[in-house]
Sequence to fold (115 residues):
Amino acid sequence: MRRDAGRPVIRKPSAGPPRRRRDEDEYEDDFVVDDEEEEPEEDWRRFLRRTTGYDPSRYRDDPYDDRSMEVGWRQVVAEEKRSERMGRMEDELAEEEEERKRKEKMKRLKKQRTQ
Fold:
């Protein structure tokens, strides 16, 4: 028994490390991975490029590449609001056009009935 800060500390007797069954030990020995047998990371990429015909150099100067694009949250929100306004305006124009066509059609039908 040992005292720590005025309080006694009681230690339990240790039973030692838990024992494993012999079968588990044998299985773990078979599961050892040898790093020398692993292929380098580039091999799978080379294999895929060879089988699919993908050539990354063809897309190096792609004008639509947006990986390096950096915009702030405010710019994104402003663009969203702008596009929402434009969408509403386009919808209103389309509705007005439909209404105009409907009225013209109604006039034509009335003329045909009166004749």
